[in-house]
Amino acid sequence: MSLTLATPHAEAPVPALAPREQETLRHIAAGRTYLQTARHMGLSKHTVDAYLRRIRAKLNINSTAELTRLAISLGL
């Protein structure tokens, strides 16, 4: 499943998020810590951090609040 978004401040659609990036975003938006997310997904907290850095870079997002807003708008 590919995820492509159009943001209000950008005319071009943003890059798609990989399934594991979507899952990570869903956990963080639900209020879980990096460590809780890592344990739930069977990863290290460093891998969770890497996924979130990739999401932030792809979508030009700088804060957890923006990540949460995005997750809500996507229905994650």
TrEMBL record:
Domain named HTH luxR-type: residues: 10-75
GO molecular function: DNA binding
GO biological process per UniProt: regulation of DNA-templated transcription
Presence of keyword Glycoprotein: no
Segments of this protein annotated with the region Disordered: 1-21
Entry keyword annotation includes Kinase: no
UniProt name for this protein: Helix-turn-helix transcriptional regulator
Organism placement in taxonomy: Bacteria, Bacillati, Actinomycetota, Actinomycetes, Kitasatosporales
